[in-house]
Amino acid sequence: MAAIELESLHKQFDDIVALRDVDLTVHAGEVFGLLGPNGAGKSTMIDVVLDYVRPTAGTATVFGLDAQQETKAVHRRVGVLPDAYHLDGHLSARNHVEFAIESMDTDDDSDAVLDRVGLGSVADRAVGGFSKGMEQRLALALALVGEPELLIFDEPSTGLDPNGARRMRTIVREECDRGATVFFSSHILGQVQAVCDRVGILVDGTIVAEDSIGGLQETVGTSETLRVTLDSQPGETIESVRQLPDVRNVSVSDTDGVVSVSCPARQKVAVIDTLRQNGASVLDIETSEVSLDELFAAYTGADG
Ligand SMILES: Nc1ncnc2c1ncn2[C@@H]1O[C@H](COP(=O)(O)OP(=O)(O)OP(=O)(O)O)[C@@H](O)[C@H]1O
ABC transporter domain: from which residue to which, for each copy (predicted)? Predict the structure, then answer.
């Protein structure tokens, strides 16, 4: 059974369409990353799944439970790290975790939960003095209480330093290893690339791609980034390279004349031949796999 199933999900706020007939399946046991630019509809999608927002049309189910009709049962099975949350500034981190343990009626150890998110040493401090990253770690801890079957994280890396982001990735993988499904939204492509089994790309309320990272790369066809070092600046030939079919993200370094191009392997020779047209010699060629950054740019129409 799917962990999350969205069918023809549509959400309109007055004249703004936040979700357009979205169909999406998140399989039980996978780590699914939802990527999209600001305003794409990511938070709205999560809010509908949790019934914080009612859809205009369509359905959302969680483990077969209707998100709108069986909300309490859904919430019992889900741990949420929301986009915005309220912490009580007078209470300590431990108080928050203990309250979550109590209200979920579980026997988690608050010290272990706080250690896991890196807040063990500040467990008894009032959270009113916490930094944004410390608050985010505490919100993550609260989502983890009770070993939920499904974890939904809205932009989980917000405010985290590199160590916090690494810890987050580790926790996501550990949760998946114990059998949980993890669904999270992010702008941080590296974060998604590092931990996700599958990715959905949401643009302007529409899922434009839903696949593994490898599958997306194949679909886009930009399987490689080519870096060509010339003995002189490319001049007008760069425009000719830009005109080649399936070639994207063409850029030239001002300092060393290195030309970067994303293109399918079959276009490599055409790119190099074009760069040689004005008599430039090629000193070096490097290739690397397309990054999710480039993939994202290709899907969202951004100019790389
Ligand atoms: N309560 C609301 N009332 C009116 N419009 C809203 C409301 N909530 C969201 N929207 C609009 O719906 C669209 C999608 O917003 P949403 O917050 O879901 O995007 P997002 O992908 O989460 O963006 P971000 O990455 O910036 O958080 C935006 O145009 C937003 O302005």
Answer: 4-229
Q: Which long-range contacts (C-beta less than 8 Å, at least 24 apart) are formed by 236-241?
A: 236/278, 237/274, 237/275, 237/276, 237/277, 237/278, 237/280, 238/275, 240/274, 240/277, 241/271, 241/274, 241/275
Going from the Cα of 44 to the center of ligand 1, the distance in angstroms, rounded, reads 6
Average pLDDT, the chain: 89
Ligand 1 atom closest to the Cα of residue 53 is 1
18 Cβ below 6 A of ligand 1: yes
Question: CA 167 to CA 200: how far, in whole Å?
Answer: 23
The three-state secondary structure class of 255 is coil
Distance CA 204, CA 39 (A): 7
CA atoms within 13 A on the CB side of 207: 20
33 lines ligand 1 (CB under 6 A): no
Q: What's the pLDDT at 93?
A: 97
Tell me, what's the ipTM?
Answer: 0.97
Angle between helices 132-144 and 93-104 (to 10 degrees): 20
Length of the chain: 304
Span from the CA of 236 to the centroid of ligand 1 (angstroms) = 42
Helix (H/G/I), strand (E/B), else coil: 84: coil
pLDDT tens, residue by residue, 241-271: 999 988 888 998 877 778 998 887 778 889 9
pTM: 0.79
> How is residue 60 written in tokens?
């959302």
Cα(35) to centroid(ligand 1), Å:
14
